[in-house]
Amino acid sequence: MSQHTLSVLVENTPGILARIAALFSRRGFNIDSLAVGTTEHPDLSRVTIVVRVDDQLSLEQVTKQLNKLVNVLKVAELEAAGAVQRELVLVKVRADNTIRSQVLEIAELFRARTVDVAPDAVTLEATGAGDKLDAMLRMLAQFGIKELVQSGVIAIGRGSRSLTERGVRETRPVGITSAATRTAQSA
Length: 187
What we know:
about 190 residues; alpha+beta; 4-stranded antiparallel β-sheet; 6 helices; about 35% strand
């Protein structure tokens, strides 16, 4: 099985995430990671999906199915070499006075930030590629991880091309209108 990252530009409408998840479920694909957030256009959201598939044909089929969903504007696969991919992790680690300096050294090594300190714990924030975050968590595990929350992968293509610009230009969804169109409609 190979891992793939899909960037899906969608209209910001209720139920779209459920329809996307249902599509993957019907096809029998397990989603490794799912992250959703608004784009520079408030009416649009970007869904980043990391999925493992058996072959390229399966990926092509699911991509075609995604493109058929009404509120999906654009689907693109982001290859690792052609995209910047990051995850965010917040981790609360046991760190009393005897081991706190060791925990903070590991945090510095992985460029994590200390976001909260308690008498017996430290909460760290780290961003980066999944491998880097996994390595940091393995190092911190020896002290005792009290709590952990991790985002899904977010990704954006390298270079000046924009998925949002292409999606809006190619489909021009209702609710996304240019200033010229709005002026013409109001006149």
